[in-house]
Amino acid sequence: MAQGTRVATSAQTPLAQNLVLSARGRSLLKRLEGIRLRPYDDQTGVAITQWVAGATIGVGHLIDQSEWSRFSSGISQQEAETLLAHDVAPYEREIRKVVTRSLSQSEFDALVIFAFNIGRRAFSGSSVVRLLNNPKASTGYPSLESAWKAWNKSQGKVMQGLNNRRAAEWKLFDKGVYQ
């Protein structure tokens, strides 16, 4: 079987129309993102007491400046869970919209986790999506795996944390291993 192609099985659903992030996928996303109940700067990880671009709380929730007063003094664990459910839903919908092939639950979970990290617009226009939908698509990457793992930079610098995250996401996508 060619790299990046899969034979439909009973574990897959046509075009992922009914899939949502599983409990195991949510757990992995929380491990990869971390859970912070006080605001912090996403780029530096440093706790903050006033809004900055990149202000984050919970499980990777970017705080809009208009939301600062709501989140400035922190949130509870339950509020972090509620925010995560709200924040993940648009990524689930985006994957169901742009991916045109069947996906297993673990593949869908990996894509949600990946897209959540890189952003919906970046995901939708990525070589990853093009290669998912057409393994023979012309991209600058020899395989879906290499296109996926190329998302390893922050502010132009290769980050070991992103290398590790991409490896975990790919292991989930390719092997169905939630680690």
TrEMBL record:
<dbReference type="InterPro" id="IPR023346">
    <property type="entry name" value="Lysozyme-like_dom_sf"/>
</dbReference>
<protein>
    <recommendedName>
        <fullName>Lysozyme</fullName>
        <ecNumber>3.2.1.17</ecNumber>
    </recommendedName>
</protein>
<dbReference type="InterPro" id="IPR023347">
    <property type="entry name" value="Lysozyme_dom_sf"/>
</dbReference>
<dbReference type="InterPro" id="IPR002196">
    <property type="entry name" value="Glyco_hydro_24"/>
</dbReference>
<dbReference type="InterPro" id="IPR051018">
    <property type="entry name" value="Bacteriophage_GH24"/>
</dbReference>
<keyword id="KW-0326">Glycosidase</keyword>
<dbReference type="InterPro" id="IPR034690">
    <property type="entry name" value="Endolysin_T4_type"/>
</dbReference>
<dbReference type="InterPro" id="IPR033907">
    <property type="entry name" value="Endolysin_autolysin"/>
</dbReference>
<keyword id="KW-0081">Bacteriolytic enzyme</keyword>
<keyword id="KW-0929">Antimicrobial</keyword>
<dbReference type="Pfam" id="PF00959">
    <property type="entry name" value="Phage_lysozyme"/>
</dbReference>
<keyword id="KW-0378">Hydrolase</keyword>
<comment type="similarity">
    <text>Belongs to the glycosyl hydrolase 24 family.</text>
</comment>
<keyword id="KW-1035">Host cytoplasm</keyword>
